[in-house]
Amino acid sequence: KIKKITSGSNFESGKFIDNIYSSIISAGTHLAPTIKVAEAAKVIENSQRDINIAFVNELAKIFSVLGIETAAVLEAAGTKWNFLNFKPGLVGGHCIGVDPYYLAQKAQESGYNPEIILSGRRINESMGSFVADEVIKALIIKGSAIKNLKVLVLGITFKENCPDIRNTGVVSVVNRLNEFELDTTIYDPWAEPSEVMNEYGLASLRELPSAKFDAIILTVAHDKFKKIDLE
Questions:
Q1: CA–CA dist 17, 32 (Å, integer)
Q2: Cα distances (angstroms) measured from residue 144 to each of 128, 174, 183, 216
Q3: By three-state DSSP, how is residue 142 classified?
Q4: What are the CB-based long-range contacts (under 8 Å, 24+) for 162-166?
């Protein structure tokens, strides 16, 4: 069977594979005419999500300057039936934070300079520093001398309820905090501490520490974090 697939046309091979997936996926499948179309479709889907998230991330920065609650604005806008309900946050992982660069590089190799795609990437890449700076600003306004203050970072994986730490945006938050010599502690019951150390050189805990902290940053929305008594 393998020989038959590899020796046939791309479309025939695709039909064979499509039939396999169709037999186990209830949602249905779509057979693209070529592998280039299939790969391009995957890349633009992730790039589209990246751009949409970048838009609300930029809104979060604007509303922060204006003193407006971003979540309240998005809730009000969401009452319109065709509003796209994206939320600001850190973008990481092996798809959304990576695929736009593949598309941009291919476009540049072909002589086209993509603007929106790379602009969205720049905004999303800057969100870690933005989050950290907002925390630092809040501590300064409170009247604290920020050096050596203790900060608890809740989450190091790239998304909620999974152990995957690939390209996590939380690292940029922690690195920015460390630049100001804050004493950061990372707690994530999902992440394997040895993997975090090997990949990023950061220590993390799988058990909630009992120490007192001057600030807590919820970076990943794990369900387990909802049960924490922050007091």
A1: 11
A2: 22, 19, 14, 15
A3: coil
A4: 162/190, 163/190, 163/191, 163/192, 164/93, 164/94, 165/191, 165/195, 165/196, 165/199, 165/200, 166/92, 166/93, 166/94
CA pair distance 178, 132, nearest whole angstrom: 10
Rounded to whole angstroms, what are the CA distances from 60 to 52, 87, 93, 153?
13, 9, 21, 20
In the set 43, 95, 217, 220, the catalytic residue is 95
Helices and strands (H, E) in the chain, number of each type: 9, 4
* Residue pair 154/188 in contact by the 8 Å Cβ criterion: yes
Please choose, from the candidates 189, 222, 226, 229, the residue with its C-alpha nearest in 3D space to the C-alpha of residue 207: 189
95 catalytic? Reply is yes
pLDDT in tens, 106-165: 999 999 999 999 999 999 999 999 999 999 999 999 998 999 999 999 999 999 999 999
Distance of CA 3 to the CA centre of its chain: 40
The pTM assigned to this predicted structure is 0.87
The predicted pLDDT at position 4 comes to 41
pLDDT digits (tens, 9 = 90+) for 54-104: 999 999 999 999 999 999 999 999 999 999 999 999 999 999 999 999 999
